[in-house]
């Protein structure tokens, strides 16, 4: 059971077991609410069994079941009444989503009583790449539109640069700016965290209780790096040879480990999809191997790539080039192996996989260096909102990026459920689409801008060469440059120049300023 704490007094989870009831009781829970109908799937534990186990533990259990998308006012009323009878409540359903939604609905009436303290034409949740680029593009279309960006962060990062930090090419400081310096002029920045959404009232509720009203809402909150989903990982990050280029403060440690390793075992991991920049776990491995090869050390280092997926890369056109580097660097590949535990002090990694009889097993592997890509999910305040699909991502039309239920809500970047690669290049292509559609929606015109699923992954296979993977929906290859200039299926020096020298200034002085070079939105006729 993965328990999600919504407040200090209320938590949710997927379907619980009888043992989970015991653990909940031990943690102080005094009321369990089941929001899942019995017999929803074969083999499901009946609520009566859970209630009987709860009674043995001297805690209450209440069944308020409803099917997905069929929550009734009576369910909400019963739920709200139940909350008033206990001070530590846990609710469950199939995934935890329904239990989150009913809590949101029960609290909506109370939150809605508060008059909005501010009102804007456009509210953007998240001041990362997608949020700022969209705000800047929108202002290019209408400088008088009233926009606010909501984000508690004080720093803004050029995250694609962390691969090169981990490879000893960039200094970490070059990838950071003060958030105040990158917020577009004319946009109000609310430096607070979001608690929830009231889409029927066109309002966002902040953790302070402040209510912000909008005409159009853009959700660009990014995703959550779920370090705690791997047992023991959080306690050992940055120590004991355990690192990750997915964090600003850890990328320099990756290079320190690679520089100082002259023998032993180096492991690189990739979790189940979706993750941001699916090539990043391999990039760290290739740059480290390139260094060891040039230092004459590679024969003394056993390098292994443990991938929870079944293939090296999701777009087959780029696999041959990557496979040639797997062979060049003598990398041992292990597919369908998912990292589940790290014992940092003893330098042991544990992977879940299946044996020859298709039975789930856990294998142990020692390491001297371990580069981890963490599991990833939507932020808690998004997953516990009425805006998401069953998997917890904001539910949008994959072309217009408009919410499937609420016409004045849009989402882009890593948090949206559009089936594209979660990359900075995708956000760069999405931002003008959302900006144009929101601009038209504010003017009461029909929306026409569409997103084609474009994403890009510059795969740094060695220092000085990159395989520039560019593709759209369905894995269709979508190169920006003609083959005579740069063949993206092969490693090239030109792609390295693009990554190292051109893209960072392009990002800071182009994308975040609303310049839409190479990404003017396609319009429906």
From TrEMBL:
<dbReference type="Pfam" id="PF04273">
    <property type="entry name" value="BLH_phosphatase"/>
</dbReference>
<dbReference type="InterPro" id="IPR023753">
    <property type="entry name" value="FAD/NAD-binding_dom"/>
</dbReference>
<dbReference type="InterPro" id="IPR036188">
    <property type="entry name" value="FAD/NAD-bd_sf"/>
</dbReference>
<feature type="domain" description="FAD/NAD(P)-binding">
    <location>
        <begin position="120"/>
        <end position="240"/>
    </location>
</feature>
<dbReference type="InterPro" id="IPR015904">
    <property type="entry name" value="Sulphide_quinone_reductase"/>
</dbReference>
<feature type="domain" description="Beta-lactamase hydrolase-like protein phosphatase-like">
    <location>
        <begin position="5"/>
        <end position="106"/>
    </location>
</feature>
<dbReference type="InterPro" id="IPR005939">
    <property type="entry name" value="BLH_phosphatase-like"/>
</dbReference>
<dbReference type="InterPro" id="IPR029021">
    <property type="entry name" value="Prot-tyrosine_phosphatase-like"/>
</dbReference>
<dbReference type="GO" id="GO:0016740">
    <property type="term" value="F:transferase activity"/>
</dbReference>
<dbReference type="Pfam" id="PF07992">
    <property type="entry name" value="Pyr_redox_2"/>
</dbReference>
<protein>
    <submittedName>
        <fullName>TIGR01244 family sulfur transferase</fullName>
    </submittedName>
</protein>
<keyword id="KW-0808">Transferase</keyword>
């Amino acid at each position: 059971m993965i328990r999600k704490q919504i407040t200090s007094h209320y938590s949710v989870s997927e379907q619980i077991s009888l043992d989970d009831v015991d653990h909940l009781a031990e943690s102080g829970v005094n009321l369990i609410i089941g929001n899942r109908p019995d017999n929803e799937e074969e083999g499901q534990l009946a609520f009566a069994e859970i209630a009987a186990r709860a009674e043995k533990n001297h805690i209450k259990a209440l069944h308020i079941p409803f099917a997905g998308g069929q929550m009734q006012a009576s369910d909400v009323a019963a739920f709200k009444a139940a909350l008033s009878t206990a001070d530590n409540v846990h609710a469950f359903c199939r995934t935890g989503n329904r239990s989150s939604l009913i809590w949101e609905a029960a609290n909506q009436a109370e939150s809605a009583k508060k008059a909005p303290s501010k009102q804007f034409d456009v509210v953007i949740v998240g001041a990362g790449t997608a949020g700022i680029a969209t705000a800047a593009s929108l202002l290019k279309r209408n400088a008088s539109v009233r926009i606010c960006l909501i984000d508690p962060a004080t720093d803004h990062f050029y995250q694609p640069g962390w691969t090169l930090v981990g490879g000893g090419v960039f200094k970490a400081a070059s990838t950071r700016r003060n958030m105040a310096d990158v917020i577009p002029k004319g946009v109000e920045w609310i430096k607070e965290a979001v608690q929830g959404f009231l889409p029927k009232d066109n309002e966002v509720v902040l953790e302070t209780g402040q209510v912000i009203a909008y005409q159009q809402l853009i959700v660009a909150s990014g995703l959550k790096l779920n370090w705690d989903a791997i047992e023991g990982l959080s306690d050992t990050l940055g120590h004991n040879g355990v690192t990750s280029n997915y964090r600003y403060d850890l990328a320099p440690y990756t290079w320190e480990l690679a520089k100082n390793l002259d023998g032993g075992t180096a492991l690189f991991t990739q979790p189940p999809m979706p993750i941001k920049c699916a090539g990043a776990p391999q990039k760290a491995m290739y740059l480290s191997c390139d260094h060891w090869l040039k230092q004459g050390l590679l024969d003394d280092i056993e390098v292994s790539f443990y991938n929870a997926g079944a293939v090296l890369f999701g777009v087959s056109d780029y696999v041959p080039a990557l496979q040639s580097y797997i062979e060049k660097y003598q990398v041992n590949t292990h597919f369908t192996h998912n990292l589940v535990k790290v014992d940092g002090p003893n330098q042991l990694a544990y992977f879940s996989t299946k044996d020859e009889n298709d039975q789930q097993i856990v294998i142990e592997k020692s390491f001297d260096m371990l580069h981890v890509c963490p599991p990833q999910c939507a932020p808690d305040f998004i997953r516990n909102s009425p805006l998401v699909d069953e998997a917890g991502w904001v539910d949008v039309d994959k072309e217009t990026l408009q919410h499937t239920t609420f016409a004045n809500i849009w989402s882009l970047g890593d948090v949206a459920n559009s089936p594209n690669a979660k990359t900075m290049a995708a956000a760069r292509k999405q931002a003008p689409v959302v900006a144009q559609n929101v601009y038209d929606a504010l003017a009461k015109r029909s929306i026409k801008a569409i997103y084609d699923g474009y994403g890009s992954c510059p795969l740094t296979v060695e220092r000085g060469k990159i395989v520039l993977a560019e593709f759209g929906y369905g894995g269709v290859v979508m190169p920006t440059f003609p083959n005579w200039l740069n063949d993206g299926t092969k490693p090239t020096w030109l792609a390295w120049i693009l990554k190292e020298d051109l893209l960072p200034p392009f990002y800071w002085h182009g994308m975040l300023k609303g310049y839409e070079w190479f990404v003017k939105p396609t319009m429906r006729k």
